[in-house]
Design brief:
alpha/beta; 5-stranded mixed sheet; 12 helices; globular; Gcp-like_dom
Length: about 350
Amino acid sequence: MTTAGQPPLIMGIESSCDETGVAFVRGCELLADEVASSVDQHARFGGVVPEVASRAHLEAMTPTVRRAAERAGVRLSDVDAIAVTAGPGLAGALLVGLSAAKAYALALDKPLYGVNHLVGHVAVDQLEHGPLPKPVVALLVSGGHTSLLLVRDLATDVRLLGETVDDAAGEAYDKVARLLGLPYPGGPQIDRAARDGDGRAIHFPRGKWGDGTYNFSFSGLKTAVARWVEDAERQGHAVGVPDVAAAFQEAVADVLTRKAVDACREHGVRHLVISGGVAANSRLRALAEKRCASAGIQVRVPRPRLCTDNGAMIAALGAEVVAAGLPPSPLDLAVDTSLPVSSVLAG
C-alpha cells in the first residue's frame, strides 16, 4: 500500500496492437516495465494480423504481469489503481487487456481507469524527463497514428491540432520497406539503410507541405517512391536502396518537424514532445533538435524503448488521472477502437 507522502502505485496494462505491456509507476518514477512482443509472429505476413495479436495477448498477459510485479518488488495487493488502454487500437487486442484489467480490479478491489493510448504516448515522457511543462505541443508518430496535439493538461485538456488524412508515417515506412525488399517492421530497417545513403540524392514530394493546416499525408510520398523504383527497374538501373531510404526518410522528417515547429510558434509554446514508435528514428530526432534549437524551442524525446507501445505510458497517464482526482471507470466499460485523443478517459 502507499505510505504517507508517497504517490499512488499504478499498474498500467497496454494491449492495443502487438505488444503486451505491463508496468508499475509511482508519480514520475518507473518501477518496472515489461513487454511481450508478438512482432515476430506478424513479420511473415508483412504487418499485424489482429487475430494473431489477440491470441498472443491472451498467452502473454498473466506472465507479463507476474514479471513486472517481481521486477518492481511489489505485490498486486500493493497497487492503488489500475490503468488500461481502452482505445484506440485493434478491437480484439484491446478486449484482452481491458478484460484482464477488469479482473484484477475486481479481485483486488482497486479502481479501474480506462485511458487513451495516444495521450499515454505523451505522458510517458514524464518518466524520462520529469513533469511536462504546461502547455506543450506533442508530435505523436507511430505505425497507426500521426498527430499534432496541444496539451495544456495531460488529464483534462488535450486538443488535436492536426493528423494524417491517409497513411500514418509508420505505415508509410512499412510499405516503402516492402518496396525496397526490406523486412518488417520497416522503420528500423529504413533508418539503418539510410545511414549509408544521401538524403539529397532524390527529391521526393512533401505532402500537405504548405496547405495552412497541421494535417499530414504520406500516401502520395509512398506512391512517389514506388514510381521511382519502377522507373529505375524499367530502365535497367540498379535501385540504390540506401539513397532511396535516406531520401524517403528526409521527406518524412522534413514535414513532421516543420509543422511541429510551426505549431509551437503559433501557440506560443516553448516545449515540443515527440513520441510514438517513429520517434526512435535517428533522422527525425536529429532534424527536430536542429530546428527546435534554431527556433528557441526545447525538444523532449523519450528513450526508444519508451517510444514504442508499453505499459509504462499507460501507468504514467493513469498516475496523472488519479492525481487529478478524476472518477474511476465503471466495470462495464467497453473498448473504443476510435477513441478521440481529446477523451483522456474512456466511457
